[in-house]
Amino acid sequence: MGMTIAEKIAARAAKTSETKAGEIHTVELDYLMSNDGTTHLTIDMYRKLKHPRIADKDKLVWIVDHNVPCDSPKTAASQKKMRDFAKENGIRFYEGEGICHQIMIEKYVCPGQLVFGADSHTCAYGAVGAFGTGVGCTDYLYGMVTGQSWIMVPETLRFNLHGRLRDGVTARDLILTIIGKIGANGANYKAMEFAGDGMKNLNMSDRISICNLCVEAGAKTALMETDEITMEYLKAHGDRKPAAVFASDPDAVFAGVYEIELGEIVPVVAKPHFVDNIAPAEDVKGVAINEAFLGSCNNGRIEDLRLGASILRGRKVSPKVRFLVVPASREVYLQALEEGLLSVFSEAGAIIMNPNCSVCWGSCQGVIGKGEVLISTGTRNFKGRAGDKDSFVYLGSAATVTASAVKGEICTADQL
């Protein structure tokens, strides 16, 4: 019987010839990523161990991205703890460089690897053919101390993508549509695998956007085959080489198979207060907004900024709206600066922020008040996610968010 990509990566990590969905295996980890959201808790637990040790410091990457710059003395203390521990133990440490997942994909993750991240959107690494999955502090600590962990090999849902997205429709619209179709629990503890002829029409930014949001359907991980687009990205970012290149076998067993015609996807939004509460953007046009956000690990890459700037060029942000634009990494920021995109945003009245999680995290920048409405390219729209518990968050694409910022109400770019 053939194996899926998830099963093959699990087998490589477990140092065995094959695995099957439902089996539990001890696995070697390629990287362990942690950010300032929880690393201070991991350090506290580490210091309580009888025989504390780090199995392999070169597998650890620690990134401050959630509250940058610091928003309070309490945050400053937790980040100092993280900073000092990393220095004492020779751990790779990034601060002010951008969002953890963007940095990991730009600099570290390679096809075939198994990566644990102390953040739920670690599944984004599937865009480069890696099995990335989010874990809590206890599992992270175990991996940090031993270099190993265990996984139950997930079943796989296969999504065959066909054709090409229409003009004005983005990969963000695609994955939100899929989440709306299968529901927030539709992929619980499963891998979501994407394949089909439509893949060649999706660039790396598109692929990251798709894989990144799969956890919002409950997925354990998301995966895509390694192809020329993957290899070109790896070459351009450090000339990295795959750990292994996997594709699902023709006779692999899937828990479900979906055929998706990309040409049928339309601009959509996720309405408050659930990511699977999906509606065509047309159905919510005219909803007044107070704030718009273009950024996050889902939509803060150079392609997203180019799209937003193309819509904004020659226009102004509505005086009723605060429009925050936040590149996902320093690399993206500098490229946007070089291309003149930041000037377009600034001249139009947008607020340009340093690379970080920003509004998506809802803690240190762009926090919204009671009754206010945000349209965001962030990852979640749960009640209170971006501020007051009685505020409202809509999720949309970079195009929809930018157009809405101009009009002062939810709309798509072709409605300007």
UniProtKB/TrEMBL annotation:
It catalyses: (2R,3S)-3-isopropylmalate = (2S)-2-isopropylmalate. The keyword Iron-sulfur applies. GO terms for molecular function: 3-isopropylmalate dehydratase activity; 4 iron, 4 sulfur cluster binding; metal ion binding. GO terms for biological process: L-leucine biosynthetic process. Binds 1 [4Fe-4S] cluster per subunit. Its EC number is 4.2.1.33. The keyword ATP-binding does not apply. CDD domains: IPMI. Residues 8-281 form the Aconitase/3-isopropylmalate dehydratase large subunit alpha/beta/alpha domain. NCBIfam families: hacA_fam (TIGR01343), IPMI_arch (TIGR02086), PRK00402.1 (NF001614). Belongs to the aconitase/IPM isomerase family. LeuC type 2 subfamily. Heterodimer of LeuC and LeuD. This is 3-isopropylmalate dehydratase large subunit. It comes from [Clostridium] aminophilum. The gene is leuC.
